[in-house]
Request: fold
Amino acid sequence: MNRTQTFLIACLVAVTAGAQNTTNSPNSMFGLGDISTGEAGKYVGMGGVGIALRSNDFLNSSNPAALTALDSLKFVYEVGVSAAQKKYSLTGNNSSSFVGNVSNIGIGFQAHRWWFIGIGITPLSSVGYAITLDETVEGTDGGTISSLFEGNGGLSKIYLSNAFRLPWNLSLGVNISYVSGKTEQSETQESATVKETSYKRAFYTDFGVQYKRKLSKKWDMNLGAVYGYNQRLHQTNTRTVTNTSNDETTETKTNPTSECMPLYYGLGVALSNHRWTFSGDYKFLQWSEMESDYTGVTYRDQNRMNVGMEYLSSEAYNKPIHYMLGVGMNNAYIMINNKKVMNYSVSAGVAIPVMNNNLLSVGVKYDRQHSSSRGVQREQSLSFYLNLTFSEWSPRTKIQ
Reply:
């Protein structure tokens, strides 16, 4: 079995496994849950930028047009994992958790001198929480009843990327994706449990373009743009009511609220020479189109801004070590009781050449939520990313 076959089997196993929890936040009960911001691969240490970045040795999932930079004689593979220590606080109560997941699996290659292909899987969102509430029972002398709220599941994306090298230093890319996943949310009160199960799925297409221009003998500039349209998620929802006191179980189909993959667009710019790369991204996501069935919970459009830099320890042909730094900020797309929350992050990473010109990338990111309003959940997390990029040389006739 060759490396390509082994890699595709690994993708199949990951698809079968589905999305795994990467959160224990109570806020993940709303909307699609905690959304993956897309950090994966070598560029995680640069703050998650990528719309304008290109490389002949690495995959860039932020913009499908970047595939046209791949070496024509290589199949490039990437696999990455992530883990995070998270802390949650609300009105003086604190909790913490440790979570982890596969962050990306992908393969890219040149199919023709102007056509490039990428295939992969990545998580999109995660639901994970367990909350116990004690409520006073009316008409009793201080009597209480406990309710346990639990949720798990999430969405993942399988994608096929096509990129086309055009004249005038332009590249055009398109992702054809299948988004799917299952979420389960339940409420248990004494002997009764109500569980809501939702299977979500959609086909989704988004686009990217890049333009490369030489500014001087030493400096190059890349410009990038991405766009994805609003796509409603098809849902099959079931409510199961179980009463252990009389061993009764009823199951009914329910009508779902509107959930969608949001319309989005983004712009990026990168400046680079033989040692330095500086890049910045802006991305807009239209979450306000989603409906909420929770009182006081609304969804707001999201703005993300990221900047990052990379330094090579030597010339590219000398197998340099890559050092990366990045920062980012965005507003939370879930708003509870009209209280706004901002997310800030700082990241760093290093990519080290290993045997046979492969690259091992390690990244760390610190996130912190901030709100000027009282009574808002605050979250801090320290995330770790490990990514391996490796390649398989192929004769040019093999991939034409």
